């Protein structure tokens, strides 16, 4: 029996927290008018659809790489959606991919360093927190886009 | 010895993660022109200074309430800064307040329900994740404000 550092949260709780955020992001995608999802942005920034493609290109592929110990280059080129429906369908498919791979990561593995996409060499738990933070960050930019468009975004605290 | 759920992160790691985010938020406050910090906003939204006062009114007071088992109403009225320097000084003071109280929360306590500000009855770990998420959320809105103003915000990944 080794002594273990004071726990903040369990893996199950983190996954539930993350999927709650993903539910909210899904609502934000849904509330965008189709045209603005692909075209609207603020000076020098990307449309929200492009940010969502980034999010989709990170979470599932990164977890797969961590579990399979495969260092693959980051790529957004694989998925080029033309409609909101395509994005939402892919979002939902990724929900299962995330659950599948996340649950295979052991407690010890969360603490090990992984060279994500051959570029980001950090402990696995930091990489995963980064995925979630990055999602919150881009989604909040989308909140501002929606406000600029005169559309009321979903409540930030509505997750399930 | 009780069996414990698979750990995602320790309390120390979460605190470091949070303070890293707070460092980045401090940089975002710094990069705002004084006038725009207090006056600029996008349709129906608040200036970033007001959001920062909200963040300052949550973290420290909430942790104090959790540790001292005191349910106090939420209040933003106590702190009404007039300058960026006042905000930054208070931000730095809160860094110590957060460290002080966070470190007194036990592993068991993180899992207990607390009625935050007499309004938000959730496990303590969920309340704390909410503080961090809420900070990322409002800071990202400030990123969009900065871009609208033609100002390049700090790198999202620069934390220490």
UniProtKB/TrEMBL annotation, chains A, B:
Keywords recorded for this protein, A-Z: Metal-binding
SUPFAM superfamilies xref list: DinB/YfiT-like putative metalloenzymes (SSF109854)
InterPro entries named among the record's database cross-references: DinB, DinB/YfiT-like
Keyword match S-adenosyl-L-methionine: no
Family designation: Belongs to the DinB family.
Listed name of the protein: Damage-inducible protein DinB
Species for this entry: Chryseobacterium oryzae
């Amino acid at each position: 029996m080794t002594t273990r550092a004071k726990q903040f949260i369990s893996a199950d709780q983190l996954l539930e927290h993350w999927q709650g955020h993903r539910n909210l992001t899904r609502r934000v995608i849904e509330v965008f008018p189709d045209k603005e999802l692909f075209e609207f942005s603020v000076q020098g920034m990307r449309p929200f659809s492009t940010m969502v493609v980034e999010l989709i290109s990170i979470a599932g592929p990164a977890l797969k790489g961590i579990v399979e110990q495969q260092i693959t280059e980051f790529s957004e080129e694989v998925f080029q959606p033309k409609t909101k429906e395509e994005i939402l369908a892919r979002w939902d498919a990724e929900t299962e991919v995330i659950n599948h791979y996340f649950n295979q990561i052991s407690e010890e593995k969360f603490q090990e360093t992984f060279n994500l996409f051959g570029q980001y060499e950090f402990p696995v738990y930091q990489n995963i927190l980064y995925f979630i933070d990055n999602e919150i960050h881009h989604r909040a930019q989308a909140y501002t886009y929606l406000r600029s468009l005169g559309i009321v975004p979903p409540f930030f605290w509505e997750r399930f």
